[in-house]
Every structure is written in structure tokens, then in C-alpha cells.
Amino acid sequence: MHPAFYIPLLVYIVFILFIWRGLRLKDKLSKSKKTPFISVIIACRNEEQNLPNLYKSLRDIKYPKSKFEIIFIDDNSTDGTPVLLDEYSDGKNTFAFKADGKNGERAFKKNAIETGISRARGEIIVTTDADCIVPEKWLTQIAENFDDTTGFVAGPVKITYGKSIFSRLQSLEFAGLMLSAAGLIKAGYPVTCSGANIAYRKKAFLDVNGFDGVDNLSSGDDELLMQKIHASGKYGIKYLWQPEAVVLTTATNKMQQFFQQRKRWASKSLFYKKPLLILILIFVYLFFLSIPLSLVMAYFNPLYFEYFVTAAGSKILVDFLVMQAGKNFFYDGGLLRYFGLAEFLHTPYIIFSAFAGLFGNFTWKERKLER
């Protein structure tokens, strides 16, 4: 067995420990006493079932009513979404618009968000998704963490779950993604975030020409924008590690929908602008491939079985360290009873979803989309 076989394993361990170290860093959030005008933008497509819960939570927000507005953008829905949005629109601080007709130039969701931004009065743009519930002090927490140098704030998102093991595994898996986002941002290396809870200066968005350069991708209205703002060198990026800022969303009960979503998320990774980051992600993917491959090769050479035990054991250890850092914040601590099962499924899931996302198309919100 060639020693080079261990390189992806070492890269994975170092990468995960880098995230863990970032999570352990003390927050350097300097609270602002300003109360900026905030525009909350929600792009909606076929969200008739979800909108009532989101709207109620938005109306319960404890932030000066004169200092924020809610902008719903209907992204060509085919259900009762437009009717609901018309009901919600009061012409004072809640508005509903249809997405502008730029779909030939922009991916659908980015086009909808840009429609909202073009009509927004806010100094700060905040986005969430229609299937979410936002906390009462959400905007207060966001506003407090926009000091004069901050251009982008990423916030926490938590998946609520039902009685099924599938929904509980989703909550645990998504917590791992959010912990990775938080650790990397806190370590000064912003890579990923969730569009269900992000905020950025409208000026920063305009300074980097918005979604130009990534506008044709169906995903990336969150992390690719964050990376652009960070790369400009003009603004700081923060992670909002505050319990009162956690946005809730629900687990899907359909396996196909779950994989379609994860394929969509994976589709943007090769469009990251930093070559080192792409190289790291390639080695991480090779590490995941090496686990089942080493088990097959162990039939011919027992040294590969030693590698399998080392790789699987190391992965479980470093993954557990990261998950422990987010217990009772990103997920309920009791879900750790499913950690072993989640680790067993994690490798084939990553291998499949990453490959499918990079080389295949997918369906989302009743649309067939290309990468």
C-alpha cells in the first residue's frame, strides 16, 4: 500500500480540526447601538403551505416597526402563493412583488432576490426562506452585530424534526453543515452559510456587483455572495452565534426531495474562487472515496484494512468533536444517540450527492434545473 493513500485522510483530519478550532474561538462580536433600517426579502415559489407560519413569526418580530420592511417576491408560483402574498401586503411595511423578467440572465432565485433588493429601502438586506420560522429578536441580534466594518453576517439555522429517524438524521446532518460554516467563518475563512439566515449591507452587495459572475448558477445566492464580499477586502464577515437568532426550518419527509436539495447545494462547490479551497474539497472527496475502496482492496492486501480502520476511526473522532461543539444549539443533544448511524450513512451519502450535484441536473420547486 502506497503511503500517498494516507494524504486525503490527513487533509480531512486537518480540515475538520481547523473547523473545530474555529468553533472554540471566542466571539469578537462588537455590538452596535445603531438601529439601521432593514429590508427582509423572501423569495417564494409554491409556498402556500409554509407562508402562514413564516408570516406570523415575521409579524411577531420585536424590532421598531418603522425600521424594517418585509418584501415578498413571488417567483412564478403555480399554487395559491400569489393570493396569500396579496393578503399580506399592506403597502406600509409589507410588500409583495413578482420577480422581474430576467430569467434568461439570472438563475431564478437570484433573479427574485435582486428584484427585492431593487425595491428595498433598507441599509441592511436580510434573507430567509418561506419554509422557516424566525425568532422575535432576530433583527435586533442582526442589527447589533453590524458595526462600521461589517459587510456580511451569517446566522444559525436549525432543522426541527418529527418522530421518524429520517427527520432526526436530517437535523443531525444539517447541524454538521452549520457547524462547519460557523467554524470556518469564526476562523476567518468564510466558505459556506445558509440563505435561510443571512444579512448583508446593500452597499456591499452593490460594490461587488451583486450576483454577477455566479448569476447563472441555480444555487449560491448565499455562500458565493459571502465569498465575493469577503474577497473584496472592504468588509468583515461575522457569524452570529446567538440563541435568540436561530431560524427554524423543518425536515423533509421525502427522500427524493432531500437528495435533490443536497445535489443543488453541492452543485456550486467547483465555482468557489479560491484554488486552495477547491483543492482541499477534492482531497476531502477523495478521502470519502477511499473508505469503501480500502474495504474492497483489503480482500487483496490486509494493509488496506488497517487503513480502513484508521480512516473510519479518525473520521468518527474528529466529527464527534465538531458535533459536541454545537450540542443544544444547532441540534438537540439527545440526537447524538443517532450519531453512529449518521456516520455509517455519511460516507455513501457524500459520495453520491457530491458526484450527482457536480455532474447531474436536478429538480427543485417543480422546476428542472441545470447546475
Characterise the protein shown here.
This protein has 371 residues and is α/β, with parallel strands linked by helices. It has two domains: 3-21 and 273-366, no CATH class; 27-254, Alpha-Beta Complex (Spore Coat Polysaccharide Biosynthesis Protein SpsA, Chain A), CATH 3.90.550. It has helices at residues 7-24, 51-59, 81-88, 108-119, 138-144, 165-186, 202-207, 223-231, 255-266, 275-297, 302-325, 339-359, and strands at 38-44, 68-74, 94-98, 124-127, 132-133, 150-154, 157-160, 198-201, 236-239, 247-250, 362-364, 367-369. The protein has a seven-stranded mixed beta sheet, sandwiched between helices. A three-stranded mixed beta sheet has the order 5-10-7. A two-stranded antiparallel ribbon has the order 11-12. Helix 2 (51-59) links the parallel strand 1 and strand 2 (68-74). The model has no long low-confidence stretch (mean pLDDT 89).
In short, what is this structure?
The protein has 371 residues and is an alpha/beta fold. It has helices at 7-24, 51-59, 81-88, 108-119, 138-144, 165-186, 202-207, 223-231, 255-266, 275-297, 302-325, 339-359; strands at 38-44, 68-74, 94-98, 124-127, 132-133, 150-154, 157-160, 198-201, 236-239, 247-250, 362-364, 367-369.
